[in-house]
From TrEMBL, chains A, B, C, D:
InterPro entries: Adenosylhomocyst_ase-like_sf (IPR042172), Adenosylhomocysteinase-like (IPR000043), Ado_hCys_hydrolase_NAD-bd (IPR015878), NAD(P)-bd_dom_sf (IPR036291), S-Ado-L-homoCys_hydrolase_CS (IPR020082)
Record lineage: Eukaryota, Metazoa, Chordata, Craniata, Vertebrata
Co-factor note (free text): Binds 1 NAD(+) per subunit.
Chain residues that bind substrate: T97, D171, E196, K226, D230
Pathway this chain belongs to: Amino-acid biosynthesis; L-homocysteine biosynthesis; L-homocysteine from S-adenosyl-L-homocysteine: step 1/1
Entries under Pfam families matching the protein: AdoHcyase (PF05221), AdoHcyase_NAD (PF00670)
Annotated binding of NAD(+), by residue: G262, E263, V264, S265, R266, K267, G268, E284, N387
UniProt catalytic activity: S-adenosyl-L-homocysteine + H2O = L-homocysteine + adenosine
Top-rank taxon: Eukaryota
One of the record's GO molecular function terms: adenosylhomocysteinase activity
Protein name, UniProt field: Adenosylhomocysteinase
Species this chain originates from: Neogobius melanostomus (round goby)
Basic and acidic residues biased stretches: 49-60
NCBIfam families: ahcY (TIGR00936), PRK05476.2-3 (NF004005)
Required cofactor names: NAD(+)
Length: 472, 472, 472, 472
């Protein structure tokens, strides 16, 4: 335990207790510490706000988030009679934000008990964590954890006397990994894992392949609704937002090369930039995606064909070393380089950490890398995901993910013995459709209902599912 | 046999024979008949052309089509050494067009023998049929067949002495159905069926489900490349073209309701019309598709909410009775109604054939249906598919389908015993990718190759397949 | 019955002679000739229709056009009490189409007498001319006039005993030119000229500059509403339509170079093609337009930089010899070349009429020009305007022009002495706004009215004009 | 050293007094104050930077700005031989930013002496002001001036012994107004005024109308290049950026009403939001603009028709009280209201300052106005211009304005006696074209040159101007 004095630790070691007793004592210390390091990256005006105001503001942020997460609120309402998660003890490991707070409060309203850690050392909104703690939730997280802190927090979620989780809600697989490694026996009581991230899902499939997955797992990441929203509708806006907030670049007339033409790239990046007047080139390895790029009006090139002329380079491949030092050497002065893909390996950033190159941080998340001849490359988020690092995720998108997570927990928790084996599952189509339908009222959208005759003609149940599971 | 004097029948009953003897006698009769009824619907200037010129022009049309079907030409070239279809006897039932001619000539170059009928009583380009016949192919088809003609032609393809097919290439399933019904023993020698249409594939799955499918079948319709092209890239252009050619309507400012928001509708119809300045409303039954419509910027409504105000109604659902008499009664004067979906059942056209309504044909494929108060509805193609009836399909799109068909034939014909069972298969991903790659040179598109390191990182073979089979 | 001696009547009553003495025979011949060569280019199904049906159909076409020209119908209604053109004798020279018929009938309803000739030897819809003649109008025009016919018809409009025009409605300036040349004294009674075309307006400005314009003239061509519609909204649709009808080309992925980036090009061609998935390059001589092309996302190139790689070349400059033989020599096989500009001089078509090149007409308006090595260029409309030759103009666009013409006639005819001198004028902004407002109901569009306070703040009259005259 | 008494120097050299006697203390105070309240709105990470670093960083910002203002750098280069502004004494009143610094340094390189004040009390980048002062320029400005400060600074620019301006560069007309009011005799030596803003230009036209304009003035605001960039290309990006930075709203599926359909609105706001998946309604008073909105695919409504359902309200009219309390009362909870027009009068913000409504500042530039029933309206920038308040202006756009200003100064300063009278002029078209051409290299854009023959055909000089002055 490297650091004996950390805020939440302190508060947890003090007179109060989370789950049972509440409140848990000396928060003032905590808050002092928290607020000195404050400043969520989405809020540049914090400096004008006093700590007191911040806290008030924050429960308000949760309140505002509630308004934009209508589906969770609808779930809460429907749960007033019945408690589908009564008896559920959910241990979670996700980003700690106002939206997560709405999810946790919803799970609680559905009958569950929750203990939570952060899945990322930077992303915790401290005020939200504090507000949740005030509200009686056991949250172990703060912005700027060390790696040791990170694992310590996770451990605190599960290693607690008198409370044993029976459901896991994970984002990245770290929590699942920790339990596998430290407390494998705990799985005997666990009814299922709900996993949200690409990485976490990948790990689960590997476990399953190796015959080591010992409970059913629900792959939330690949649910259609989430996929479409995260990859397409969200990236379409965050590519513009991320570039603008970091560089103030004008998009009109800029030449851009986008590496990869999958869902993220297609409408997410390429279409948005094209709409703003950029000239977009695409690179691809898969001929089918390549042909789609052509038909959508993008020149398909090899990176080296255009590297000298482009103003912006964006990677969205999921591959590694897509942009390497040789490419970076040939870029023109002022070229912006960033990553919208699924990993931080796409740009070989390590290759830029050599003595002849000078790094200069010009803004948060923005580095100028300077060549001996004075040429500057503008590297965003050090090659990590632009949309997560330099942009915000609209609450509405998070609402879809959170609702899907809640439904996946309900499904796994209530499924009759034998419906799910020790394998990785996609959310049943019908529940995916249900998630979508809960979000339609936001748009004042009116769904058409099948007539009996039409349902019969199509061989469908009038209430869905309307598409086969594999349909995207 | 209701009609003793039909052109191809005549020629086939005369002195010559197709496959063996050639030529087949008294073509002059045939041509006279053909050319008096001539005029492909895509060519409004035929009246200026003499029959003689037409025939010349037509082999030229095949020649021109060859230039736009580079993938088939590439296949021919690669086949110069080896004949992957040597010994194959292919019986086909498709639209008879210049593009089909290029396919047939390619199959022939690959070593196959072909006998062909039309899958549609209207779509045959007589000059192409004639040119193919001149070139030695056994083609049984003409524009404007009766239903009896239709089945007679199909029968002539298979019911022939001394020649028995070992491969079926079908579009709609009628040929397959005929063989099942009349010559079931023929399947003993048949190595496989390649089916192109939704309907035909549906029939095959039903056979398979019922345990009655007795040879392997390849579902070409659902190959990714074909799907993307037919549904999206093609419809995007043909919705505009079909409406313009039939009605000369100006798109700017028009209010349009599109029923259904699947692939055809999404980018195909809605995006194209939006780009031209129309205001587009969408109806949907599936909440996932509905949410996508919302996010793409279309108001999601029930048909009745907007039926009084829209200028154009387009159906793309695959469902039946999507637009019924009640809706038609409420449309405003001059409203255009058409169908881009998968069946001719979407608009309840039968309900318009009542005594109080007057029908008036104002152009080919365009009817005015007139209410007693003088209100006119403009009904296109009597509710059949607009894109097939009133627009043209670019050769490039047909090239993708034809190449896929050719590869599917090669795959089934050469597959080692046991690779394919008596079931319906999708084209292996790798061959789908191959089809796409053969079309990239058209766009001067340059594919990126994986490095060894990247292939290893992704767990892929450097030459593909690059995506799982279910990937779209 | 405004005119006892009508051309159709005349010609039908016995053999006559053209002005220069050529006999034009009896009308039955004329009609036979007319209808056998009939077939408006917008109507591919004429061959199925008998002459009798055609004529019936045509008054129906006028009726249908009336429904899409709501502004003229509104003018007619308002004229029921008052006849603003009472006493006006309008001689016109325009395209003779169903839409012109609606205009003429409107002028007549407003009190005017009309005599009309065609401004183009090909564009007359014979059935419309016949229907107008039947309705009592003096129309001198048929499809396929010789140049002598053309001038004879014009002469017949003005050279008539007992009737002298006091207003001119011209499209191209030929009528005005004829009167200047043959009957200059006629101008003494003429109150004004309304001119619709670029060329005609140019001629008027030259006359004015030379001090030879002897009556006020209204430049209808440059009215804002007409400009926006003709140049932008109309071309946006007609570029796609014209290319599709002539070549069936697929737009997706095609490389296109557009010469010139004015109004026609900008949204008209470039934006439409971009929306359909083409990759568009632009050439420009004016740096301001060039910069706009850049910001809109088009690579600005010199023609020679891309001429080898493009699939389609479109000229929209108003300049001459923009595409010359040297460029044509370098194009790739199958390249499509067409003109959307203001003249037929943009493509140096004459340079293609050399012995080593073979011309082959493949469809109406489509020529293949074939190089000795077999390379084919697809030349549309022999370099004349694609949108006029190969596409249709929506009635709604023509409605705007026709309404503007009618209002310009009313304005000039009723203007108090001295308001207009012997000069060329633009339509007063307020009347331009009135034309626009008459077309809004078509879109169910609701205009906002200024409050008194707002009008005062802006220094405007509540009823307009809302913008200065130069505003576009 | 043009001016021994510079403000920064002054203030740093000891306590001073404002014009009206208020003391403004010693500079160290000033700097402390400046940097503690610092934080340019474009830079959210200032809190991590020490004052020392900030200043270093800032001359770097000027350096970076230089790279994106290639046209000014080109002017500097051309001025190496000749000094077109030698002897010019320019007094300026503009926003004080890195881009202005590049302009001032350019004017200086061209031979001019400069004294400068800020045209806005909030927009000064203090570090830039400091860097300019360090570099020897007389700059009187800081972020957060009071109104008295504001006029004091302006006065300090002109009221200085031994230095009298002969050129005015104004943005808003306040400087011009001050000289008119306080030092009218100064105009005797002034050769001209260059004015950049709508308001300032309006004032000049009023002066001219009243016969009180006593020197020539150049209206830079209405130069084509500036207009297109500021109104269209810039707003297209800043509407998205401004909304995103302040509210993180997701655009997809949002219903938006845009009041006014002029240049700003048209492509600036409406097209950008449409491209991001919003459903956009438009209100207009001018039927011509209204018809364009219809043709571009937007429903034209009165505000009240949609006010209950929209998620975002944007004003771009230039009018006053476009959104009034009655509208605000009817908006739904969470509705965002902002202004992109030319004044801060469009939204009647004053009407919201009533006791029953609660205002809550949730972020910088973002207020929640809360109704008694809990409904919240999200008001941005208190109704001031969103694009200036909540977004950044790309350097490239400012480069165009700054280059135009520099050329206007050169033109007025060097014009032969009599070319310009005491009136308001637009920049000659040719210079406008020159500004554009200086910016083309940024896009690697290649302009086509007219041949002699073409120039003759068009009646143009080969080097321009290519369009009449009124052309946009």
């Amino acid at each position: 335990m490297p650091d004996p004095v950390r805020p939440w630790k302190l508060s947890r070691e003090g007179p109060g207790r989370y789950l049972d007793g509440r409140p848990f004592g000396n928060t003032s210390n905590v808050f002092e510490c928290l607020f000195s390091s404050a400043a969520s990256y989405t809020d540049s005006s914090d400096d004008e706000t006093s700590p007191r105001d911040k806290q008030q503001k924050n429960s308000k942020e949760i309140e505002i988030a509630e308004q934009e997460m209508p589906a969770l609120m609808a779930l809460r309402k429907r749960a007033q009679g019945e408690k589908p998660l009564a008896g559920a003890k959910v241990v979670g490991c996700t980003h700690i934000t106002a939206q997560t707070a709405v999810l946790m409060e919803t799970l609680s309203a559905l009958g569950a008990q929750c203990r939570w850690a952060a899945c990322n050392i930077y992303s915790t909104q401290n005020e939200v964590a504090a507000a949740l703690a005030e509200g009686g939730f056991s949250v172990f997280a703060w912005k700027g954890e060390s790696e040791d802190d990170f694992w310590w927090c996770i451990d605190r979620c599960v290693n607690v006397e008198g409370w044993q989780p029976n459901m896991i809600l994970d984002d990245g697989g770290d929590l699942t990994h920790w339990i596998y490694k430290k407390y494998p026996n705990m799985f005997k009581k666990i009814k299922g894992i709900v996993e949200e991230s690409v990485t976490g899902v990948h790990r689960l499939y590997q476990l399953s392949k190796a015959g080591k997955l010992c409970v059913p797992a629900m792959n939330v990441n690949d649910s259609v609704t989430k996929q479409k929203f995260d990859n397409l509708y969200c990236c379409r806006e965050s590519i513009l937002d991320g570039l603008k907030r970091t560089t103030d670049v004008m998009f009109g007339g800029k030449q851009v090369v986008v590496c990869g033409y999958g869902e993220v790239s297609r409408k997410g990046c390429c279409a948005a930039l094209k709409a703003m007047g950029s000239i977009v080139y695409v690179t691809e390895i898969d001929p089918i995606c390549a042909l789609q790029a052509c038909m959508d009006g993008f020149r398909l090139v090899k990176l080296n064909e255009v590297i000298r002329q482009v103003d912006i380079v964006i990677t969205c491949t999921g591959n590694k070393n897509v942009v390497v030092r040789e490419n970076l050497d040939r870029m023109k002065n002022g070229c912006i380089v960033c990553n919208m893909g699924h990993s931080n390996t796409e740009i070989d950033v390590a290759s830029l950490r050599t003595p002849e190159l000078t790094w200069e941080r010009v803004r948060s998340q923005v580095d100028h890398v300077i060549w001996p001849d004075g040429k500057r490359i503008v590297l965003l988020a050090e090659g990590r995901l632009l949309n997560l690092s330099c942009s915000t995720v609209p609450t509405f998108v998070l609402s879809i993910t959170a609702t899907t997570q809640a439904l996946a927990l309900i499904e796994l928790y209530n499924a009759p013995e034998g419906r799910y084996k020790q394998d990785v599952y996609l959310l049943p189509k019908k529940m995916d459709e249900y998630v979508a339908s809960l979000h339609l009222p936001t748009f004042d959208a009116h769904l058409t209902e099948l007539s009996d005759e039409q349902a019969k003609y199509l061989g469908l149940n009038k209430n869905g599912p309307f598409k086969p599971n594999y349909y995207r």
